[in-house]
From TrEMBL:
Superkingdom in the source lineage: Bacteria
Radical SAM core domain mapped to chain residues: 26-133
A single cellular component GO annotation: cytosol
Record GO terms (molecular function): catalytic activity; iron-sulfur cluster binding; metal ion binding
Cofactor dependence: [4Fe-4S] cluster
Originating species: Pseudobacteroides cellulosolvens ATCC 35603 = DSM 2933
Protein name: Radical SAM core domain-containing protein
InterPro entries, A to Z: Aldolase_TIM, BchE-like, rSAM, rSAM_sf
Pfam name, any one: Radical_SAM
Keyword Nucleotidyltransferase: no
């Protein structure tokens, strides 16, 4: 997408909008996700595209994925708002500085918070994409994640257990920690042995975080006090997350059975499995 002209991108957007409008496909909201997850890699190109969208007169709601650094670019945020973007899906990943260091990330908790606040200060929503299962993660990671989301008014979340992609250096370094290689179950389930928490407990943390964020109490609040897209999206995600939790719960029995399995890399974790300490 970054090699295309801004005019070509605008034409593509118009065709996507027309596809739905002409067929009168029923939708609760009119929004479009710009799917290039490297949209902001070339800043000048991104600015040109946003200006072209504004100049085209398109009146639509857009969302887009971005790294947290975009939250420090005031010019970009103003253009996003003026072009009709209402939300940025931010790859927050972790909330712990130790996790960022462990995975050689330059991010920090304080920078994530500053970025979120600045994006929101420009009238844009933030959707959080999170990863759990870092070696520093312990019991309570789900509560910490949910509290962060609620406290900082994160618009919606995707919580992904850590996994390693075959053919990458990180996979080679961690393949002995995989629980199995049944790729059909690499859909949010815990699939590796973390250092400081059992796979079973980590799966429960994910379920707990989802339930706390998408609670019935927050659903009622969204229905009666939410506005526009925010209300529609929360209602939809409430039921989607319930479906995801049901799927994760079905894996719990299998993960529980691993607590007697000593094929675990950490002696400390083996002790946890056997004695429940």
């Amino acid at each position: 997408m970054r090699t295309r002209t801004p005019e070509n991108v605008v034409e593509d957007i118009k065709q996507a909008i027309g596809f739905h409008d002409e067929r009168k496909i029923p939708r609760l909201s009119k929004m479009l996700w710009i799917t290039d997850d490297n949209f902001f890699a070339d800043r000048d190109w991104a600015i040109s595209v946003l200006k072209a969208i504004i100049a085209s007169g398109i009146k639509y709601s857009f969302t887009i994925q971005a790294r947290y650094e975009v939250g420090f670019d005031d010019e970009m945020l103003k253009l996003l708002k003026n072009a009709g973007f209402f939300e940025i899906a931010m790859g927050i990943e972790f909330l712990e500085d130790d996790a960022f260091k462990e995975h050689h990330k330059k991010s920090s908790y304080d920078e994530i918070v500053r970025s979120v606040r600045n994006i929101q200060g420009h009238g844009l929503k933030v959707r959080g994409l999170f990863i759990v299962g870092a070696d520093c993660h312990v019991k309570g990671v789900g509560d910490r994640l949910a509290d962060f989301v609620i406290q900082h008014d994160i618009h919606g979340v995707l919580i992904q257990s850590m996994y390693f992609v075959p053919g990458t250096p990180v996979y080679e370094a961690n393949k002995d920690r995989l629980i199995h290689k049944d790729w059909s179950r690499y859909n949010g389930n815990v699939v590796h042995y973390p250092e400081r928490i059992s796979p079973y407990d980590l799966q429960k943390e994910i379920i707990h975080a989802s339930r706390k964020i998408y609670s019935v109490k927050r659903l009622i609040k969204a229905v009666f006090t939410g506005k526009g897209l925010s209300r529609v999206l929360f209602i939809g995600e409430f039921f989607w997350h319930k479906h995801v939790r049901d799927s994760l719960k079905r894996e719990l029995l299998y993960l529980k059975s691993l607590e007697k399995d000593m094929r675990v890399p950490s002696d400390e974790l083996k002790e946890h499995y056997v004695h429940g300490s």
